[in-house]
Amino acid sequence: MSAEREVLTWELFGAASRELAQAVADSGYRPDLILSIARGGLFVAGSLGYALDVKNLHVMNVEFYTGVDERLDLPVMLPPVPNAVDLSGAKVLVADDVADTGATLKLVRDFCADHVADVRCAVVYEKPASSVKCEYVWRYTDRWINFPWSTEPPVVTKPRQVLDA
């Protein structure tokens, strides 16, 4: 990974999310719902929802990153897990901020695959090492990314819970 960082400002994010939505629209894909991967994907999903006129947004909580370039061995789905019945037969657009290793996107895409009519992924950034090649990508990079929502430290810090394996 390069020592240089990709810096995404709020203003640039606005342009990026609009261009990403335009790519989805230009492809002819019309999702029935957008499935956000929390937390970074919440911003992307909300922006895509407005731009694509999709009000049906769902959230999947997945923990993988624990710090800058630090992650768990495997991504972990956190409750509440979406009910597969709610996704049944739908065209789903999975939204996240970055496809880094692709492990989180793969977990979510595989969860959806058996239940939905079609699942596609949209991300702001995709890295070369990603095991998932997303259908919609705003920009490709091999750098660490400073997102506007996660660059500053939290205002308060809660004690971390330890997940039992």
Quickly count the domains: 1
CATH class: Alpha Beta
Give the number of DSSP strands.
Answer: 8
What radius of gyration results from the CA coordinates? 15 Å
Q: What CATH architecture label applies? A: 3-Layer(aba) Sandwich
- Tell me the CATH topology: Rossmann fold
Q: Please outline the major beta sheet.
A: 6 strands, mixed
Query: Widest sheet: strand order?
Result: 4-3-2-5-6-7
Strand proportion, as a percent range, falls in 35-45%
Uncertain runs are none
Number of helices, where a helix is a run of at least 4 consecutive DSSP H or I residues = 4
Q: What is the distance, rounded to the nearest whole angstrom, between the alpha carbons of the first and last residues?
A: 29 Å
Silhouette: globular
From N to C, what is the helix and strand string? Answer: EHEHEEHEHEEE
Looking at how many chains there are and whether they match, the oligomeric state comes to single chain
Mean pLDDT: 88
Structural class determined from secondary elements: alpha/beta
Helical content band: 25-40%
Task: Provide a concise account of the structure shown.
With 165 residues, this protein is α/β, with parallel strands linked by helices.
